[in-house]
Design brief:
The complex is a heterodimer of chains A (436) and B (297). With 436 residues, chain A is an alpha/beta fold. Helices cover 44% and strands 13% of the residues of chain A. In chain A, the strands form 4 sheets. Chain A has a 7-stranded mixed β-sheet, sandwiched between helices. Chain B is mainly alpha-helical and 297 residues long. Chain B has a single domain, classed as ABC transporter involved in vitamin B12 uptake, BtuC (Orthogonal Bundle), CATH 1.10.3470. Classes of the chains: A alpha/beta (436), B mainly alpha (297).
């Protein structure tokens, strides 16, 4: 009798475990919390985990709880690929992957297609991946580097009094000498030709701890604007070097990876007046208050330093997680509410996102991020950015409305580049008219 | 011509900053005959500890001496746990031990103080000297000039320490041959302990100056990349060599980047010093001021 009772108890426990398992959606956190880029990694993934914790505290996605497992990459591409391989089948299989690293994203590009797992690359990675016909599993959501570069030129044009006023001006592109820094050059060159400004390209060797030679060249060239396309220590060093060479920081416009608190605080007073692009409007939002109250109030917050709640990287991580959750929610709408979605179904969700103002209002994030509407053709879904300025203590938005560059021109470049990639890799682009 | 001199002066001043880091390597090499891979990590650890203590509410006048004490303890512990068991082992063994030590120190620093990037204000404005800007149209940073003065004072102190003190002479004997030094009664462990503590002090000074210049962050560990060509050029065993090597590397990388870079796509200041150092190795393997070792066979 005791034997039968034991067997029944074990079976009941197994059933309960299976039932719990069936209601959990796994999202890996392939992150970096130590090493040279730890500040960005801990802020971003801290934000993403905070939002997923909040979703779970609010009952999950139609009852489906989110689970995650962290894997440290130290921003190293090889480790990133190892993490992906280790976690892709864990907890029933990963729903999606977000590596927050161009190097890791490149390493995973072919793998995610083979494994049929969607990869999000918010604001980084290959710009031509916006063409969903060639890159069905890659989603450079909100804005790619090329869209950002176009928006930068639009902003500088507005600042000069109109795009036509850029004619004859000098713009320096001071960039990290890597694939990341070189990515926007085709866009800048195309605009330089079209608008008649002089583009001066000055590379900075990794890691960019010393830039006096570059800034002396800038001083000599006397440019009207400097576009800072930097990463890590290069950004603070650039701002300090600008100060020591007497170049006004108000004339420097940074890429969004050069626009966090971690980029300006080390530069101290040298950063005051510096402007950068962003895809989050700085400020406070009901969603952030809810995270503070529920998640941190219950002692479940991911950030050690609560002062970082609402910082640039934290908000960026929340934005990423909002889009992940919305993609899963969208997939559930089609494939069954309250069910755990496969990665293929989540991919469909990403391709059919519609995060409009009404949805952002329901989330308590109106204005925090732009609206996002994706399709088979367009995996970016927005292209909108803002410009923010560091006032010495905090970031402030200085563009009242969301800013987009010449979308038609960027789309043409995206399609040309994607077609070239498809030809190289012998990929037959999807026919979007046949996609459901 | 004015621009050439501006680039040259900027390069020389940057070179002094590289020399500061290189000095730490020279000290350890002189004492143990090994390249201390962990020196960059020590710079990071020292700067992060000082700024961490400062963030806890201590003034820099308290935080810096406290950090110095921490660095001395770190040096003594390193000697006791890492180096002492490896006495008379091949140099490569000691080198490998310092690689392990480097990862340990980097991890320890982040475990204690976190991985956040921090600012450090030493009260020295990093702005161009107005007089030079107005009269010669040259942007020379007053921060760099003060850093150069600090480096000069430190080199003078170290030169006296090595040549005029008993411990300095003992240190040179230990560097030549551990076992011979032991056999004539030189307290090897004591000498190593002292030199690691002094290297800790040098790391603290470089960490504070570089931290104030670029922020206190993990990337300070990359300073080793800047120090290596300086050491090859100046010699691993010479304090003045570290300074002269730094000046040559600093000036040549800036001149190369500004005047040669545009013809080859730019961004050459990362690798140019290494090419220069390699060429120099072909002519004078022991460096400008390094000791020429002649072995009888």
């Amino acid at each position: 009798m005791n034997y039968i009772k034991t067997v029944l108890a074990v079976l009941a426990l197994a059933a309960a475990a299976c039932s719990a398992y069936a209601q959990e959606q796994f999202i890996p956190a392939i992150d970096y919390r130590v090493g040279p880029y730890a500040a960005g990694g801990s802020g971003f993934f801290g934000g993403a985990i905070d939002y997923m914790t909040l979703v779970n505290m609010n009952g999950g996605i139609n009852g489906v709880k989110l689970i995650w497992e962290e894997c440290e990459t130290e921003y190293n591409a090889t480790r990133g690929v190892e993490c992906y391989e280790r976690l892709k089948k864990a907890h029933g299989g990963m729903s999606l992957v977000e590596p927050l690293s161009t190097g890791i994203a490149y390493g995973l590009l072919d793998r995610v297609g083979q494994d049929k797992i969607p990869m999000t690359t918010l604001g980084y990675g290959r710009s031509d991946a916006a063409d969903g016909r060639v890159f069905p599993y890659v989603f450079p959501l909100i804005t790619s580097y090329w869209s950002q570069a176009a928006a930068m030129i639009k902003y500088l044009g507005e600042k000069a009094g109109g795009l036509d006023k850029l004619k004859g001006k000098k713009i320096v592109h001071l960039y990290h000498d890597s694939a990341f820094g070189k990515e926007p050059i085709p866009v800048f060159e195309a605009f330089a030709k079209q608008l008649g400004f002089e583009l001066i390209k000055i590379p900075v060797a990794h890691p960019g701890l010393e830039q006096q030679a570059q800034w002396l060249q800038i001083r000599q060239a006397k440019p009207d604007y400097v576009i800072l396309w930097g990463w890590g220590v290069m950004n603070a060093t650039a701002l300090k070097s600008a100060q020591r060479n007497g170049f006004p920081r108000e004339k420097i416009l940074g890429v969004w990876w050069a626009g966090s608190e971690e980029d300006v605080i080390p530069a101290g007073a040298a950063a005051k007046g510096y402007t950068t692009m962003t895809f989050n409007t700085p400020g406070n939002y009901p969603l952030l208050d809810e995270i503070r109250k529920k998640v941190y109030g219950a002692g479940k917050g991911n950030l050690e330093d609560k002062a970082r709640i609402g910082s640039v990287y934290h908000m960026r991580g929340i934005t990423a997680a909002v889009l992940w959750v919305e993609a899963i929610r969208r997939a559930q709408d089609k494939f069954g509410k309250g069910k755990v979605m496969t990665s293929e179904q989540v991919r469909w969700g990403f391709e059919n996102l519609n995060v409009d103002d009404a949805r952002l209002k329901a989330l308590g994030a109106v204005g925090m991020m732009p609206t996002v509407k994706t399709s088979c053709l367009d995996h970016e879904g927005s292209g909108a950015t803002k410009v923010q300025q560091w006032d010495g203590a905090k970031w402030k938005s200085i563009s009242p409305n969301w800013l987009t560059g010449d979308k038609a021109m960027i789309r043409k470049m995206v399609e040309e580049s994607a077609a070239k990639y498809a030809a190289e890799k012998k990929i037959t682009p999807r026919d979007c008219s046949k996609e459901g | 011509m004015q621009f050439f001199f501006e680039v040259l002066i900027a390069g020389l001043l940057s070179g002094v900053m590289y020399s500061l880091v290189a000095l730490g390597y020279v000290l350890i090499y002189k004492a143990s005959g090994v390249f201390n891979f962990a020196q960059g990590a020590m710079v990071f650890f020292a700067a992060l500890t000082a700024v961490g203590l400062h963030d806890l509410g201590l003034s820099l006048w308290v935080a810096v001496p406290l950090t110095m004490a921490v660095m001395v303890v770190l040096g003594l512990v390193t000697e006791r746990i890492v180096l002492r068991p490896l006495v008379a082992q091949p140099e490569i063994t000691l080198f490998m031990a310092t690689i392990g030590l480097s990862f340990f120190i980097e991890g320890l620093a982040q475990a204690i103080w976190g991985a956040n990037v921090r600012g450090l204000d030493l009260g020295i404005d990093d702005v161009p000297l107005e007089w030079l800007l107005d009269h010669a149209n040259m942007a020379i940073s007053q921060f760099d000039l003060i850093a150069a003065a600090i480096a000069a004072a430190m080199v003078a102190a170290l030169a006296i320490f090595f040549s005029k003190t008993k411990i300095g002479r003992a240190l040179r004997a230990v560097a030549d041959d551990h076992q011979a030094a032991l056999s004539v009664g030189i307290p090897l462990h004591h000498v190593w302990g002292v030199v690691w503590a002094v290297a800790g002090f040098v790391a603290l000074v470089s960490g504070l100056l570089w931290g104030a210049r670029n922020g206190v962050q993990f990337s300070l560990t990359f300073l080793a990349l800047k120090a290596l060509p300086v050491l090859i050029l100046g010699g691993f065993t010479s304090v003045p060599g570290a300074i002269v090597g730094g000046l040559i590397i600093g000036a040549s990388e800036k001149l190369a980047e500004v005047f040669l870079g545009p013809y080859v796509g730019g961004g050459i200041d990362g690798w140019f010093p290494y090419v220069l150092a390699l060429l120099f190795l072909l002519v004078r393997p022991e460096g400008l001021f390094g000791e020429k070792i002649i072995r009888r066979i």
